[in-house]
Amino acid sequence: MINRYSREEMAQLFSDENRFNAWLKVELLAAEAFSEMGVIPKEDVEALHKNATFKIDRIYEIELQTRHDVVAFTRAVSEHCGDEKKWVHYGLTSTDVVDTAYGYMYKQANDVLRKDLEAFRDVLKANALKYKDVPCIGRTHGIHADITSFGLKWALWTDEFNRHLKRFEMASKDIEAGKISGAVGNFANTDPFVQDYVCEKLGLQSTHISTQTLQRDRHAFYMATLALIASSIEKIGVEIRHLQRTEVSEAEEMFNKGQKGSSAMPHKRNPITSENMAGCARVIRGYMTPAFENIPLWHERDISHSSAERIIFPDAIILLDYMLNRYAKTLENIVVYPDKMMENINLTHGVIFAQRVMTRLIDVAGISREEAYDLVQPLSQKSYSEKISFNTLLHENDRVVELLGETGIDACFDLNFFLRNVDVIYQRVGI
């Protein structure tokens, strides 16, 4: 991932240095396992721990000749060892090291992403509590529909990210796995004890069965989970973008001192971070295709998945880490305009209360739904088209006054009615 969309903490986890360190860790743990079995002398394992190291430039240099990165790595490591070098990569095939090391690297990355997700969810929860009692207009199809609480938007997103955290734990467990089962997965040259030993030491799941590779349904599920999370971030961004439109102006991203919105229009304050999230989410969703296409490999192994994975997994993980951190700050500092929300509630001259009036005519006055509908509809249409107060028209209609009374009409316009179950919803969400 390019530096613009990378945080140093996560980018470092996918550096060549960390990758080779993970390979070396697998190699040394495998040697320990063979030593536990009595195959490798204890003193040779001690020598490996003392001497086995690498220089990245030397690995690159050897790879130019071998055209094989693992071979280049093992030879570069062996150059630092004495007679114990004969045990470097003993009993292993390349993918034993690479796939298990990737599982370890993903585990490191997941520890960061988990904190990111929890922090992001906590920002949503804080805003849900902050705006719980702020009324705003709810919209369906982009059109005014009914009155709701601005906090319910945040509560909804909080619940969504609680689900993401559960899915993330499932997907993380799947991908934090290792295999050291040999060239075709039959453990012919390496006892299953070695795999179990290495995976336990690395905190990974030791797979029940594999070919030369881990099965890529694990990786596809993980990528799909990252894409779901990114899509929910974009979903929130779409809402903020709509709320920031000039015609709506109910909320907006904070505009920092010295920030510029346009090179040509000095008045512009654009929802740039929310739009940035949309673009980033598209990239991560795009990586789902190669992740799923990596599942079918030829027989016990081919490397058609390898080139794609070197790109898509570091990119997606680094990018999602960036998205969660950047947008959490944006949402934490979101600027909200409750007065504008109230203005928009009244934008249609009270017609938004038409459903409430109709319902009261049915359950209080006792008339049929058809009669109530036919009584309210022409008044609401007249209010909307002629920009006349709906409340006024109701008070001027003898039939409505007869059925509901003056105070009964006014009661239909009580905002608290629309927020009466907000606390119940919050309890269901766990806020």
TrEMBL record:
<feature type="domain" description="Adenylosuccinate lyase C-terminal">
    <location>
        <begin position="349"/>
        <end position="430"/>
    </location>
</feature>
<dbReference type="Pfam" id="PF00206">
    <property type="entry name" value="Lyase_1"/>
</dbReference>
<dbReference type="InterPro" id="IPR022761">
    <property type="entry name" value="Fumarate_lyase_N"/>
</dbReference>
<dbReference type="GO" id="GO:0006189">
    <property type="term" value="P:'de novo' IMP biosynthetic process"/>
</dbReference>
<dbReference type="InterPro" id="IPR020557">
    <property type="entry name" value="Fumarate_lyase_CS"/>
</dbReference>
<dbReference type="GO" id="GO:0004018">
    <property type="term" value="F:N6-(1,2-dicarboxyethyl)AMP AMP-lyase (fumarate-forming) activity"/>
</dbReference>
<dbReference type="InterPro" id="IPR019468">
    <property type="entry name" value="AdenyloSucc_lyase_C"/>
</dbReference>
<dbReference type="GO" id="GO:0070626">
    <property type="term" value="F:(S)-2-(5-amino-1-(5-phospho-D-ribosyl)imidazole-4-carboxamido) succinate lyase (fumarate-forming) activity"/>
</dbReference>
<comment type="pathway">
    <text>Purine metabolism; AMP biosynthesis via de novo pathway; AMP from IMP: step 2/2.</text>
</comment>
<comment type="similarity">
    <text>Belongs to the lyase 1 family. Adenylosuccinate lyase subfamily.</text>
</comment>
<dbReference type="InterPro" id="IPR008948">
    <property type="entry name" value="L-Aspartase-like"/>
</dbReference>
<dbReference type="InterPro" id="IPR000362">
    <property type="entry name" value="Fumarate_lyase_fam"/>
</dbReference>
<dbReference type="Pfam" id="PF10397">
    <property type="entry name" value="ADSL_C"/>
</dbReference>
<comment type="pathway">
    <text>Purine metabolism; IMP biosynthesis via de novo pathway; 5-amino-1-(5-phospho-D-ribosyl)imidazole-4-carboxamide from 5-amino-1-(5-phospho-D-ribosyl)imidazole-4-carboxylate: step 2/2.</text>
</comment>
<keyword id="KW-0456">Lyase</keyword>
<protein>
    <recommendedName>
        <fullName>Adenylosuccinate lyase</fullName>
        <ecNumber>4.3.2.2</ecNumber>
    </recommendedName>
</protein>
<keyword id="KW-0658">Purine biosynthesis</keyword>
<dbReference type="InterPro" id="IPR024083">
    <property type="entry name" value="Fumarase/histidase_N"/>
</dbReference>
<dbReference type="InterPro" id="IPR004769">
    <property type="entry name" value="Pur_lyase"/>
</dbReference>
<dbReference type="GO" id="GO:0005829">
    <property type="term" value="C:cytosol"/>
</dbReference>
<dbReference type="GO" id="GO:0044208">
    <property type="term" value="P:'de novo' AMP biosynthetic process"/>
</dbReference>
